[in-house]
Structure formats: structure tokens, C-alpha cells
Design goal:
The chain has 7 helices and 13 strands. The chain is of the alpha+beta class and 249 residues long. It has 2 domains: 158 residues, Gcn5-related N-acetyltransferase (GNAT) (Aminopeptidase, 3-Layer(aba) Sandwich), CATH 3.40.630.30; 86 residues, Glutaredoxin. The protein is globular and about 55 Å long.
Length: 249
């Protein structure tokens, strides 16, 4: 029988958070992510992981306080469900999702929802996996889709209007990011140094509050790339990737 751990204020400092395990360059990001979780626990944030050394976890919280430009009432929002490496194909993803569904039902929620895409994109779950459990598309922006599993016949969540445009006024290369992801802190520093050394105009806008998250100009908050005012991808970039992308653009 698989053993799982839910992070709380008593155990979070000694437990790993799955992502960036053992990678020294991302430890500042891990610290930032843990602080972000600590601040979110009061909102009902749940980070549940397999008691093992690996990337196996689910993370969710009430939609009202979730850092995502999705509006709704009485739903849980799944930020991430990740089962990697040798832990795949062992029913662990099913157990994690079923836990979240049953937890949401036990709390009297109207449903549970998550973000996916029509075509596979980084840091998003598999659409088919969620559909197997009865999730259905309730809203969409371009390739991004909001899936929901309804428990009650209440109004379903929707993308905020600010996110629908997928545009910003700034024409320079601009990156929106937040500490929801432990990988971003290192790349922000790397890209900042690279841009300075190469005289590249690069803007960073940090999502550091619920208000900013709910009103962000893109459906994806962890990392969003904009160029000439248009959203181009949610891929976390390093200097090499940025250089290639700029040449392509």
C-alpha cells in the first residue's frame, strides 16, 4: 500500500517538495516555493506527495484563493498533478486524483477543476487522464482548456476576462512568473544576467499576490513569455533557449 504525506507547517521544512530534488542550482527556488506554500496553507492549500524520493504529487486549493486567472465559487483547483520516472503506470496518479476528488466532496465543494491544453505543453496535465475520471471542458482560450468535474449542478468556473486577450501593451520580451514553481527563481537570475551582458531588453513581472494572479494577462501564471505584446509560450527559458527563440522570432 502506498504511503502519502500532506505538507503542513510542522513537516514542510524537513520534507522535499518533489520538484528540483537534489539540484543545487534550484535550491533558492525550493526555499521560495516552500514559503509560498506556507502562506497558502491557511487558504486550504493541499500539497500531497508519495513518501518517496521522486516527483510524485498533487497540489490544489479552493478556486477563490487559487493563484490563477480563473473565477468561480465552491470549486477546488488543481495546480499540478505529477508522477514521473519509474513511478508511472502504477496507479499512483489515480490515487492522488481520487484523494483530491474525495477531499473536495468531503468539504462540500461543487466540483474540482484544472488547466490542460489541446496539445501537450510543459507543466500541464494530460487531458485524457482527467477525462477518464469524468472531467469535461467548461472553458477555453486558444489551446488552453479548463476542465471540471461537477459534483453539483452549480455554475462552473471560467477564465477571467483579463486572461482572454493573451496580450500586453509592452512590446519588449516580457516574462510573467511566480514562486508557484521552484524552477523559476534560478532562470530569472540567469536570464537577467544574460540580458544585461548582451544588452537585451528583457522585462520580468512577478506575480506575488492573489490580486495579480487573478488579473494576469495569461492563463498560465508559473511562467508566461510575451513578445511584441503577444503571448508566445509557457516554456521556462534558460539563456540558450531564449537566444534560439529570439532568433526564431
Amino acid at each position: 500500500m502506498n504511503e502519502y504525506i500532506n505538507l503542513n507547517l510542522e513537516n514542510i521544512d524537513k520534507e522535499h517538495i518533489c520538484c528540483a530534488i537534489g539540484d543545487p542550482k534550484h535550491q533558492d527556488g525550493v526555499v521560495c516555493k516552500k514559503e509560498w506554500i506556507k502562506n497558502k496553507l491557511k487558504d486550504g492549500h493541499v500539497f500531497r506527495k508519495l513518501n518517496a524520493r521522486g516527483k510524485i504529487f498533487i497540489e490544489y486549493e479552493p478556486i477563490e484563493t487559487a493563484w490563477t486567472p480563473i473565477n468561480g465559487k465552491n470549486y477546488e483547483y488543481i495546480y499540478c498533478l505529477w508522477v514521473a520516472g519509474s513511478f508511472k503506470e502504477k496507479g499512483i496518479g489515480k490515487e492522488l486524483l481520487e484523494y483530491a476528488i474525495n477531499d473536495a466532496k468531503g468539504k462540500g465543494r461543487s466540483g474540482i477543476c484544472t488547466l490542460v491544453s489541446k496539445k501537450k505543453k510543459p507543466f500541464l496535465g494530460e487531458k485524457k487522464f482527467f477525462e477518464h475520471f469524468g472531467f469535461e471542458v467548461v472553458d477555453a482560450i486558444e489551446d488552453y482548456e479548463l476542465l471540471a468535474l461537477k459534483f453539483k449542478n452549480d455554475e462552473t468556473p471560467k477564465f477571467n476576462e483579463t486572461a482572454r486577450a493573451m496580450k500586453i501593451d509592452n512590446q519588449d520580451f516580457t516574462i510573467y512568473y511566480s514562486n508557484e514553481c521552484p524552477y523559476v527563481e534560478h532562470e530569472v537570475k540567469e536570464l537577467s544576467d544574460y540580458a544585461k551582458e548582451n544588452n537585451i531588453k528583457l522585462n520580468f513581472i512577478k506575480i506575488d499576490s492573489l490580486e495579480k494572479a487573478k488579473n494576469s494577462p495569461c492563463v498560465f501564471n508559473n511562467w508566461a513569455n510575451f513578445y511584441k505584446g503577444k503571448f508566445i509560450s509557457n516554456t521556462i527559458l534558460n539563456p540558450n533557449a531564449l537566444e534560439k527563440l529570439l532568433k526564431k522570432l
